[in-house]
Design a protein that fits this description.
This protein has 471 residues and is an all-beta fold. This is Glycosyl hydrolase family 32 N-terminal domain-containing protein.
Length: 471
């Protein structure tokens, strides 16, 4: 695990925002407790890439919510070849619940044997290679197009697109919004979004970084006030984590805590071959696509070029089946979807380069990328000094029948505030997405508003996924 960050110079202003246990930003000390990475639940196929214009090399998927439904965008191309070629198209599918997707019959572009189909961009090389849309939440957008997209390869630079309905896309201008530098770049899915936290458009894009004589697939960042004029800021910093090839970065604001950017990235191991030639023939993978393997890892940021790789272990392993151990499989889609009152989902391209290529859904508890965890023997976590503005302390937590969660509020000298000590704290037992810390006097924490405090969590056979001082 990377070394913890230095303590903050001033108290952390939490306000009433929700905080997750995806990094050590708030952690001053752990005793008998740990930050534990979640294990996603395989929820089954979401869409098979089985149309003639789709096929084995569908990739770079994006899921977003627009117009009361979920939209899935992805590259369609049935055969391998150079990036940005004319055969590539951009496809869309729809879902009411984010669990399974169907194709709308749009009729915008005629495909062989199917005049009505789900293609939203064609005959527009190279932009269907990595077309990456997002919902524009900038307050100044008003009645303008609700959706924007970024697309392009090194030979073209990155171009911007806009759409009102998610199906009909037009360029924002004739040339690129971010021209290519001299160094080779943009050869992956490049992702943009409007950051409510930073109050600007943010772009994370593919670059390369030489470290110790090895060139790694890397990520760099640019920002913009208007989506058209971009300023590059340079490569991101993973805080001392060992360098690895992150093929896609898939960074976006987490929808329940938008000051935290979460990326479920494809981690690529070039030349790490698992299948023999005979096994590759058996799964019918393209002969050029079985000499490498990939999995997925979790990275997070709180803005800027600094990222945390708190967990170096795989977030999603390739899993059972030789078909999962081929080149460029297991690539996560951009964004997460809330698919139930207590559930969120992310999506992964599986069986790349094979006739069985498809998008698969994985489920997590809401806020549940990771948790503060302690076993039966119990443990504690102490936060750095913080201030807050809410009136109740909400917790997303789960315990065993024998387990519990309790919370203390301490002053700057780590002494319990009157009425908020361990002896005053009620045991929380159960499993709730939004439960409330309680003390003998009740759930109110207004008496501590405006003060610099620390929180000490006491856990026994329990997990806490998030907390926040809500209104």
């Amino acid at each position: 695990m990377p070394a913890p960050a230095a303590p903050p110079a001033a108290p952390i202003a939490l306000g009433s925002r929700r905080e997750l246990f995806v990094d050590r930003f708030l952690v001053a000390g752990l005793e008998g407790a740990e930050l534990r990475l979640a294990t996603p639940l395989d929820a089954g196929p979401a869409l098979a890439f089985d149309r003639p214009w789709e096929g084995a090399f569908c990739a770079y998927s994006t899921v977003l919510r627009h117009g009361g439904r979920w939209l899935l965008y992805y590259r369609g191309v049935p055969s391998s070849g150079p990036d940005g070629r004319a055969a590539e198209v951009t496809c869309v599918a729809e879902s009411a619940d984010g669990r399974t997707f169907t194709r709308p019959e749009l009729g915008l572009f005629a495909m062989a044997g199917a005049p009505r189909n789900n293609v939203v961009l064609a005959n527009a090389a190279p932009f269907s290679h990595n077309f990456s849309p997002f919902v524009d939440t900038c307050p100044g957008v008003g009645a303008g197009p609700a959706l924007k997209a970024i697309a392009g390869v090194h030979s073209s630079g990155l171009h911007g697109f806009v759409s009102a309905d998610g199906f009909r896309w037009t360029p924002v201008q004739a040339g690129p919004v971010l021209p290519s530098p001299k160094e080779f770049t943009f050869d992956s899915q490049n992702v943009a979004f409007y950051s409510e936290h930073e109050r600007k458009y943010v772009l994370y894009y593919r670059t390369w970084q030489e470290i110790g004589g090895t060139k790694y697939r890397w990520v760099s960042r640019a920002v913009s006030e208007d989506f058209v004029h971009w300023t590059t800021e340079g490569p991101v910093d993973y805080g001392g984590a060992p360098p690895e090839h992150l093929y896609t970065n898939q960074t976006s604001p987490y929808f329940r805590a938008p000051h935290i950017y979460a990326g479920i990235c494809a981690r690529f191991f070039p030349g790490r071959q698992v299948l023999t030639e005979a096994q590759a023939r058996a799964v019918q993978v393209d002969p050029q696509y079985f000499q490498d393997c990939s999995d997925a890892v979790l990275v997070t940021s709180r803005g800027g070029r600094s990222f945390s790789r708190t967990f170096l272990d795989a977030f999603l392993r390739p899993g059972l089946g030789l078909q999962n151990w081929v080149s460029r499989s297991n690539y996560p889609a951009l964004n997460l979807a809330q698919t139930g009152p207590a559930e969120m989902s992310f999506y992964v391209n599986r069986d790349y380069g094979q006739p069985t290529a498809h998008l698969r859904r994985y489920a997590l508890r809401l806020d549940g990328f990771a948790s503060l965890h302690a076993g039966y023997g119990g443990g504690t976590m102490l936060t750095h000094p913080v201030t807050f503005t809410g009136h109740r302390l909400a917790l997303n937590y789960a315990t065993s029948a024998a387990g519990s969660v309790r919370v203390e509020l301490l002053d700057g000298d780590r002494q319990a505030l009157p009425g908020f000590g361990l002896a005053d704290a009620a045991e929380l037992i159960g499993d709730e997405i939004e439960g409330y810390a309680r003390w003998k006097q009740g759930v109110g924490v207004g008496a501590a508003q405006g003060r610099v405090v620390r929180l000490r969590f006491h856990l026994k056979d329990a997990d806490v996924y998030s907390f926040g001082f809500l209104g």
